[in-house]
Amino acid sequence: MKKMLTMLAGATLALASVAASAGTASVTFVHPEQYKDFPTWADDREELLKEMAGHFNKRARALPANEELRVEVLAVDLAGRLRPSPLRMHEIRVIRPIDWPTMQVRYTLLRDGAVVAQGEELLRDMQAVSRANRYFSDDPLRYEKMMIDDWFKDRISMR
């Protein structure tokens, strides 16, 4: 029983520390209709944008509670190329090593309302298709998420 209480207390403290560092993110997509290799169907496009915004938000939860990340996504070129599918109404994305993802972002990191960092960067991962990926193969943004993770670790978390 004592061991169970100790484990429960440890789990509670771990959850409290996660809750204590819960930064936020706001993501704006600028002219998403011009993004490359995005689906032509509006519902599919909206689903990808929602998934991408959710990933920025997930990364921002690792920030301290007093920090906010504002991201404007200016351009996106998804890994691979869209090709028409004769068997489906929607396109399929064909992934080749020469079709890595890129994304142009403008960002501002605020701490207690004051600007800590800001800039505009071109994110790209030329090894995205050939390196190990921690996201499932059925995730339509698995290469882009890895690229965002790397950028977040290198530029945002280190501040």
TrEMBL record:
Under the heading Pfam families, the entry gives: DUF3016
Organism encoding this protein:
Zemynaea arenosa
Signal peptide positions (record): 1-22
Which lineage ranks, top first, belong to the organism behind this chain? Bacteria, Pseudomonadati, Pseudomonadota, Betaproteobacteria, Burkholderiales
What is the protein name stated in its UniProt record? DUF3016 domain-containing protein
Task: Name the UniProt key words of this record, in alphabetical order.
Answer: Signal
Supply the InterPro entries for this chain.
DUF3016
